């Protein structure tokens, strides 16, 4: 959950109120018959609101399926992780058939040749494709006319490779022409009856038709523009209360004063009839603020409506603030959406006889979207651009993108989930920018005879380079596996050792003979736990090295039981270049070296000389956590 929107560097931004969207859906659902469900239309990036985020909210409200315009929109939802049925509402190209099948989309079939091509491809792939048939009941855009529908229906329902899941039509003017709409619906009902059409989904109503009591013959309704809080006809305001979901905002970047008679903007289309103070807003038609709002639009600043003066430029508009002297540089500007009736989308477009659909889809071309629930910022979406820029995305979204990219690269969702869960999540557990790793990892263990015949005297030297995170670190020695495992979870621990359970933990059993950072000899302090001994290593000079790459060197002296018959060395962090060596007395013979490495090379180089075994990777090779070596004797 994000706590706030950091917009200090943003010229404009879009806020999406998911609570308003769900409120609109709840209001629309009261018009549904008991047996009816709904398809949420999310084409054109959910009318500019963000298809993924709107999809998630709609599915929580019980959406049966999602409606998109084409393969690419459906493909994007699948890549982002959507599992719900996705219906392509517009006609598809024959060349898009492989993608439709790959991403498990439901294409709309409008004519016989496409159906035949689809059957042919499905037969070769030995798959079955769910489809939707569209009947042209009078809008005369896409869909099969009555004279062609019977043949299309007969072919599709008898093709073993196809499943007719949906049959639908579309109203031309359900918000304003009930008579024509009723005629369309009657045609639809008659063609279904005449051809004995049976399908899981039957639908003709859009959201405007729903509240006008049209489309009751279907078991689904397609909810679009009204769900986004935009009225398409004045009469709708008496039937349903809708809340604008999108609010487009910017900031005052300049305030100027001009005398009476001066003009503003290209071609001098506005002339001051008095001494005028005006504000410059860094938004223009390239941002989706329509050019036709020149000298007509209004914006809301500090609760006051301010008229747009002059032509809308590519990157700027000017607004008259003469009657609002309290407005200052940096004051927030509401260009469209909530806050005042005059800046609702439908009222703005009425100023130039425009389309609410168009304005919604084009708004915020250079703006990030911020999503709110219960007044709190929950996620953000990047600028609308083709090139991928990772910093555009919040951590949660970036994680999803990484996993999807892995799935596409290796062609396996199951494997990508495993790779992300078991490997990448380890690095991203705290925050994406805090990925800890070691370089030039060198660990040497020397066994020599001790005064106690049951134990080896073990001298260890560990050195590596790493970015210093804090002005101290811990060395932990535990006498039980359970206690030691707890120290693997703590990132302030740089060295862990398992002691024989027969020993009482004390400095004579396990001691740091030397511990350094960049040749600075560190101070140590021991803290005893029930089954562990923690040694805190610190020095005042370390504070000046935090954030820099430093060289650690940790030397220990301890005892190791001969009865163990094996020595294990674990690599607990992502490591760049490894060398692990084991020196042993001549009394030990037939030592077996078993490396278990994950990373760029599963099989490190093993060299053996007199009484020493060394396991080495190349300096540039990465080794993943949970790798290591077992020396068995």
Describe this entry's structure for a reader:
- Keywords: Isomerase.
- It comes from Candidatus Syntrophosphaera thermopropionivorans.
- It is an enzyme of class 5 (isomerase).
- This is Alanine racemase.
- It contains 14 helices and 36 strands.
- It is α/β, with parallel strands linked by helices.
- It has a 10-stranded mixed sheet. Strands 21, 22, 25, 26, 29, 31, 33, 34 and 35 form a 9-stranded mixed sheet that branches. It has an 8-stranded parallel sheet with strand order 8-7-6-5-4-3-2-9.
- The two termini are 52 Å apart.
Structure, briefly:
This protein is α/β, with parallel strands linked by helices and 633 residues long.
Biggest sheet: strands side by side, in what order? Answer: 11-14-17-16-15-18-10-1-19-20
Ends distance: 52 Å
CATH homologous superfamily name of the largest domain?
Alanine racemase
Give the CATH class of the largest domain: Alpha Beta
The number of domains: 4
Based on secondary structure, the structural category is alpha/beta
Shape: flat
Largest sheet: 10 strands, mixed
Strand content: 25-35%
Going by CATH, the architecture of the largest domain would be Alpha-Beta Barrel
In helices, the fraction of residues equals 10-25%
Mean pLDDT reading:
91
What layout of secondary structure does this protein have?
Blueprint: E1 12-17, H1 18-29, E2 37-41, H2 43-47, H3 51-60, E3 65-68, H4 71-80, E4 86-91, H5 97-102, E5 106-109, H6 112-125, E6 129-134, H7 146-158, E7 162-168, H8 178-194, E8 201-203, H9 207-211, E9 220-223, E10 246-251, E11 254-258, E12 263-264, E13 270-271, E14 276-281, E15 298-301, E16 304-309, E17 317-320, E18 332-336, H10 345-350, H11 356-362, E19 368-373, E20 376-381, H12 395-410, H13 413-428, E21 437-449, E22 455-467, E23 472-478, H14 481-488, E24 493-498, E25 510-517, E26 520-521, E27 523-528, E28 532-538, E29 549-561, E30 566-571, E31 574-583, E32 592-596, E33 605-609, E34 612-616, E35 622-623, E36 627-632
Parallel strand pairs: 1-19, 2-3, 2-9, 3-4, 4-5, 5-6, 6-7, 7-8, 21-31, 23-24
Antiparallel strand pairs: 1-10, 10-18, 11-14, 12-13, 14-17, 15-16, 15-18, 16-17, 19-20, 21-22, 22-29, 23-28, 25-26, 25-29, 27-28, 30-36, 31-34, 31-35, 32-36, 33-34
Keywords: Isomerase
Protein name: Alanine racemase
Enzyme class: isomerase
């Amino acid at each position: 959950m994000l706590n706030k929107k950091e917009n200090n560097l943003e010229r404009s931004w879009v806020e999406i109120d998911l609570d308003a969207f769900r409120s609109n859906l709840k209001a629309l659902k009261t018009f549904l018959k008991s047996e009816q469900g709904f398809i949420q239309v999310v084409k054109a990036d959910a009318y500019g609101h963000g298809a993924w985020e709107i999809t998630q909210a709609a599915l929580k409200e019980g959406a049966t399926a999602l409606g998109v315009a084409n393969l690419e929109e459906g493909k994007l939802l699948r890549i982002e992780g959507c599992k719900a049925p996705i219906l392509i509402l517009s006609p598809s190209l024959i060349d898009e058939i492989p993608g439709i099948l790959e991403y498990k989309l439901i294409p709309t079939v409008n004519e016989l040749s496409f159906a035949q091509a689809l059957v042919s491809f499905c037969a070769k792939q030995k798959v079955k494709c769910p489809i939707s048939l569209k009947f042209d009941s009078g809008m005369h855009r896409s869909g099969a006319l009555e004279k062609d529908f019977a043949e299309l229906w007969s072919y599709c329902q008898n093709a073993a490779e196809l499943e007719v899941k949906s049959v639908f039509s579309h109203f031309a003017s359900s918000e304003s022409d009930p008579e024509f709409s009723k005629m369309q619906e009657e045609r639809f009902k008659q063609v279904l009856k005449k051809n004995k059409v049976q399908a899981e989904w039957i639908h003709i109503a859009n959201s405007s038709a729903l509240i006008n009591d049209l489309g009751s013959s279907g078991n689904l309704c397609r909810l679009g523009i009204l769900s986004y809080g935009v009225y398409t006809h004045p009469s709708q305001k008496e039937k349903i209360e809708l809340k604008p979901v999108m609010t487009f905002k910017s900031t005052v970047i300049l305030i100027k004063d001009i005398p009476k008679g001066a003009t503003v903007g290209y071609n001098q289309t506005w002339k001051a009839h008095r001494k005028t103070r005006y504000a410059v807003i860094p938004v223009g038609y390239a941002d989706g603020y329509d050019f036709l709002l020149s000298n007509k639009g209004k914006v809301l600043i500090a609760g006051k409506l301010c008229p747009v003066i002059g032509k809308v430029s590519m990157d700027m508009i000017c607004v008259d603030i003469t009657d609002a002297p309290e407005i200052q540089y940096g004051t927030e500007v509401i260009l469209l959406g909530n806050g005042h009736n005059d800046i609702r989308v439908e009222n703005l477009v009425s100023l130039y006889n425009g389309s609410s659909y168009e304005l919604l889809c084009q708004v915020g071309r250079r703006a990030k979207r911020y999503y709110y629930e219960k007044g709190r910022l929950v996620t953000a979406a990047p600028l609308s651009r083709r090139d991928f820029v990772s910093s555009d995305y919040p951590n949660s979204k970036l994680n999803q993108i990484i996993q999807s990219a892995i799935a596409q690269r290796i062609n396996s969702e199951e494997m990508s989930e495993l790779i992300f869960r078991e490997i990448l999540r380890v690095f991203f557990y705290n925050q994406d920018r805090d990925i800890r790793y070691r370089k030039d990892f060198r660990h040497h263990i020397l066994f020599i005879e001790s005064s106690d015949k049951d134990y080896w005297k073990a001298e260890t030297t560990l050195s590596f380079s790493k970015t210093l995170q804090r002005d101290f670190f811990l060395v932990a020695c535990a006498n039980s596996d359970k206690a030691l495992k707890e120290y693997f979870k703590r990132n302030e621990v740089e060295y862990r050792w398992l002691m024989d359970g027969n020993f009482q933990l004390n400095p004579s059993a396990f001691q740091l003979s030397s511990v350094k950072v960049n040749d600075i000899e560190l101070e140590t302090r021991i803290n005893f736990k029930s089954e562990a001994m923690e040694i805190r290593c610190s020095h005042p000079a370390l504070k000046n090295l935090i954030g820099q790459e430093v060289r650690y060197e940790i030397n220990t002296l301890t005892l190791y039981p001969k009865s163990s018959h094996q020595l294990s060395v674990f690599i607990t962090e992502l490591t760049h270049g490894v060398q692990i060596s084991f020196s042993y007395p001549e009394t030990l013979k037939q030592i077996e070296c078993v490396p278990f490495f994950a990373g760029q090379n599963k099989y490190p180089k093993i060299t053996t000389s007199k009484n020493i075994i060394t396991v080495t990777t190349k300096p540039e090779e990465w080794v993943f956590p949970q790798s290591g070596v077992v020396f068995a004797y």
